[in-house]
Amino acid sequence: MKQIRLSLLFALCLVCSGTGYAQNAQAANSATSSSSAAAPAAGGTRIGDITELRGIRTNQLVGVGILTGLDGKGDGSRSVPIRSSLAVMLGHFGIEVDAQDAAGKNSALVLVTADVPPFASPGDRIDITISALFDAKNVKGGVLLQTPLKSAGGDVYAVAQGKVEHSGESSTVGEIIGGAVMENRVHSDVEGEGGFTLLLERPNYRVAYLIREAIANAYPDLSVSAGDASSVSVTLGEDGDLVRLIGEIQQLRIDLPRPSKVVIDEASGIVVMGGNVQIAPVTVTYRGATIEVGPPGWNSGNSNGFSIEETVSVQKFFEVLQSSGIGTDDIIDILKVIDRAGALYGSLEMM
């Protein structure tokens, strides 16, 4: 068998010591003791970077308003909704106008939406998105009249007003940066039953265990539990300082398991490989040539092809094939077949 050795030609490796992680099929083989696993290693990942607090989230607001100054590109004089809305709006200012006489070609009814970040307070400004509801041709440059923005429960939390300065690919959608002012605070319910819950951004049993152990080791007086792969709950004592404790726990660090995953974007030819992904002994026939992966002597002689005499990583496998003149698209097809054969020690994700 001919052993092929070569330098690195192509590999995009994902080393997961930061924010990304995935289910690790071999986590049980590399598990350490509770004390060492929970140690907040200086080079690990902060718990606050991979979790969020239950009860703290973005809230959505919506409203319907009138956009004016559209220079003849509005809903049009035949639009009953805009004519009626203009008549009602003018009536609030003591100007009595029949809906039939309210021309709407310079105005439009628009939907106004906004995302409210956690802890937004009265007086804070938030961005809003404007989108035409009916026949308006272009909303850019229009002026939004004062529009209340409501939650799903119908309560008003912000008021929007301003000129549409930004528009994207669609002429009927625009934005007003800082176009709404918060009038009421959206309350965040962090504390529940004397504690709080951390939600994992990517549910993973191993990571939930590591977070639980890190908190329990750092704060032995607290009651810490991981109900499932997605959450870790912390119960405080009677005199617990919630703000201080959350801040300190978010700074604790854990060593995340490396992902056993290969992600392929066929459109661009990008292949991202976790450092742990291995290929089991396998034989692949490609256009008359045989590619063998396995220890010396595990299979019959290979006179028309080449061999890699070990259980190889996907990274090295990729390098060997590419150095032999096999294109990226063909290597991707080979990896997909290896995965279907059950010889890929990890998961294959196609984009």
Automatic annotation (TrEMBL):
Keywords: Bacterial flagellum, Cell projection, Cilium, Flagellum, Periplasm, Signal. The keyword Signal applies. The keyword Transport does not apply. GO terms for molecular function: structural molecule activity. GO terms for cellular component: bacterial-type flagellum basal body, distal rod, P ring; outer membrane-bounded periplasmic space. One of its GO terms (biological process) is bacterial-type flagellum-dependent cell motility. Its main location: periplasm. Transmembrane segments: none annotated. It is found in: Periplasm; Bacterial flagellum basal body. Residues 1-22 form the signal peptide. It comes from the Bacteria. It holds the Pfam family FlgI. Belongs to the FlgI family. The basal body constitutes a major portion of the flagellar organelle and consists of four rings (L,P,S, and M) mounted on a central rod. Assembles around the rod to form the L-ring and probably protects the motor/basal body from shearing forces during rotation. This is Flagellar P-ring protein. The lineage of its organism: Bacteria, Pseudomonadati, Spirochaetota, Spirochaetia, Spirochaetales.
